[in-house]
Amino acid sequence: MSSDVDINAAAGKFLKLAEGHLAAYAEACVKCGQCADACHFYVASGDPRYTPAYKLFPMAKAVRRQKWPLAWLGLAPRLTRDDLAQWEELLFDSCTLCGRCTIVCPMGIDIAGIVSASRQAFVAAGLGPKDLLQAADNARDKGSPLGVTPSVLAERIDWIKDEHEVEIPLDKAKAGILLTLSSVELMKYPDSVAAMAKLLNHAGVDWTLSSKGYEATNFGYLAGEMDIAKVMVERITAAAEAVGAATVVIPECGHAYGALRWSGANLLGRPLPYEVLHITEMLARLKRAGRLKLRPTEASITYHDPCQISRRGGATAEARFLLDGFATDFREMSPTGNYNWCCGGGGGVQAIGRAAELRYQAFKIKMDQVEKTGAKTMISACSNCRLTMDESKEHWKWQGGLGSLVELIADHLAEPEAKPAQAR
Amino acid sequence: MTLLDAARGPVLQLALAIFAFGVAWRLSSLLLLPFARDKSLPRTGAPPAAFAALREILRRSWPQKSFGRASLFMTVNSYVFHLGLALIVFAFAPHILFIKSLFGVSWGNLPNNVIYAVAVVTVASLAAALIRRISNPVQRIISTFDDYVAWFVTLLPVLTGLAAASHLIARYETLLAIHILSVALFLAWLPFGKLMHAFLVFVTRGMTGAYLSRRGAQL
Ligand code: SF4
Ligand code: SF4
């Protein structure tokens, strides 16, 4: 291992984070092994190294070395470079921060939270997968992990407007709602952007995009680079304040929701001056207010819960509410909702090239779940899940259909474009 | 002073002092940390943190239904030895008398023969836990020396207690002294290793309950 790994920086960071609130988690594991069966990486591979509890080790070791009352006896060894080298793959490639293990642990240890924090210590030491870190750097330097600068944004939006014949306001001076985008959608799933625009226009919402803050994804957060994570939150906040938006809408992206809705204020250091809604929450709100007129669909579909929206985000019910009465042949997978299996590519794993094989393996669980429902198509509300699943589908030459909840709804508007800008 | 006098007197007192001081130290070193206040807006309708914490502490005492079949053996076996230990400590007549002599409170007991049966089952259950820890690849890789120490100091009082009660091998007074010494070892070690989970379980379950309930996540 190269000598530029700063082991002291890692140890220091571990301690600092532990003092935040994680020390109890790091010390409480009874090594029962229950969490293994909750983790798709263990279940798909059978490799005991992927056991969630094993991912606690570096943090636990650093804390024990410093805090254990008997450490002075020399019984608490130091964290070594070797440890960090061994655990890098476990903390980055083979954890999607999905939080399934957190749900099953009899001690209630939030393993996903420890992994997320441990990544910060690894990055402080100069470690971490290069491509994930590059995505975070791109976000800071160019505005988006995929290099979507404000001018690329304007070009893409113009193109989507023409292609889909839909009105997409960019940089309106004032708007009640600021919509953000995931660059995965902009570059790979532009239909999804058009779909959101159609729906918001259909409901007569006063909304805009802003070139000051458009990127919803937060790769700083995923890569353990909290300074970059903060920059991303600051950009959206500046944009929302500039247009006077009371609400910021996160598109179909799971971690983007978690990063802004649940960590945004803590990163910013003050409460967010706006409410944060995932697009499914926004649409559910419109549906409740009678502002979404839909034609039902008879297609047989099942719904993949993005972990950060359902299990870790608390918005499990919104997608069901949207599907209720709309998708007449909706079939739940088992398990589903808060217990749903992860797509295999959350938590930044999608951006780690060398983790591809692991993702494919994890997706086998998903394919099996979908096949058991007999549904033809699995829709989701996260473009990162979707990208992961599209790639895995391709790898396995799987026949199942994949899609987006928002696109499905937009394709079934009862009065398409009938009242594009009815102000309410 | 006989061995029994020493065990019952100064040794046990020292062990209790280490236990009390150690537990207090470790809990306070965790709980007195400055908790960063969560600035995110709680989901509408989210319960107060204290309620959510308490609810999670209780709720996690039952296995999650969707994971019911996962590690079924571990779940069942863990209930068996935890309940077994609790019954032995708190429902055996001599123990109740001893607790009364220390703290002045007492309650009803179970017949001795029942307790002996419970103790045998507990020993078998602890043995099974060890076999599983060694033979199951997942448990083996996550186990450290501390896990085996914890196992050993837990088993010892049960075994020595059974030996003392059955008057086997040696004089009753000697066996009783050894039993009390093994209890002292258990108490003195508890704050320093994984046995501390007896207290930490309230902290970690509570923290996670409060943290996820704030988000409106149904656990
Ligand atoms: S958070 Fe998910 S991926 Fe990570 S260890 Fe837990 S179950 Fe596995
Ligand atoms: S389920 Fe919890 S206590 Fe059991 S091994 Fe996993 S992290 Fe440790």
- Overall pLDDT level of chain B: 92
SS elements, strand count of chain A = 8
- The coarse overall form of chain B would be globular
Q: What is the molecular shape of chain A?
A: globular
**SS-based structural class of chain B?**
mainly alpha
The percent of residues in helical segments of chain B reads over 70%
Associated small molecules: iron/sulfur cluster
Strands ordered across the widest β-sheet of chain A: 2-1-3-4
Oligomer kind: heterodimer
| Number of helices, where a helix is a run of at least 4 consecutive DSSP H or I residues of chain B | 9
Largest sheet of chain B: none
Name of the top-level CATH class of the largest domain in chain A: Mainly Alpha
Give me the number of helical elements of chain A: 19
Strand content of chain A: 5-15%
Question: Helix coverage percent of residues of chain A?
Answer: 40-55%
Supply the CATH architecture of the largest domain in chain A.
Up-down Bundle
- Give the percentage of residues in beta strands of chain B: under 5%
Biggest sheet architecture of chain A: 4 strands, parallel
Structure description:
The complex is a heterodimer of chains A (424) and B (219). In chain A, strands 2-1-3-4 form a four-stranded parallel sheet. Chain A has a four-stranded parallel sheet with strand order 6-5-7-8. Residues 418-424 of chain A have low confidence and may be disordered. Chain A is of the alpha/beta class and 424 residues long. Chain A has three domains: 7-128, Alpha-helical ferredoxin (Fumarate Reductase Iron-sulfur Protein, Chain B, domain 2, Orthogonal Bundle); 144-286, Up-down Bundle (Glutathione S-transferase Yfyf (Class Pi), Chain A, domain 2), CATH 1.20.1050; 293-410, Rossmann fold (3-Layer(aba) Sandwich). Chain A has helices at 7-27, 40-45, 57-67, 81-93, 100-104, 111-124, 130-142, 150-164, 183-188, 190-202, 219-223, 226-243, 254-262, 264-268, 279-288, 316-323, 356-373, 383-396, 405-410, and strands at residues 177-179, 207-208, 247-250, 275-278, 297-304, 327-330, 377-380, 401-404. The longest helix of chain A is centred in the first third of the chain and has 21 residues, at 7-27. Chain B has 219 residues and is mostly helical. Chain B has a domain at 3-13 and 71-188. Helix content of chain B is 73%, strand content 0%. Chain B has helices spanning 3-31, 49-59, 72-91, 93-103, 112-135, 137-142, 145-166, 172-189, 197-214. In chain B, α5 packs antiparallel against α7 and α7 runs antiparallel to α8. The longest helix of chain B has 29 residues, at 3-31. Chain B is globular. Chains A and B meet through α1, α5 and α14 of A and α1, α3, α6 and α9 of B. Bound molecules: iron/sulfur cluster (2 copies). Residues 29-35, 52-53, 105, 107, 109, 111 of chain A line the site of one iron/sulfur cluster (SF4).
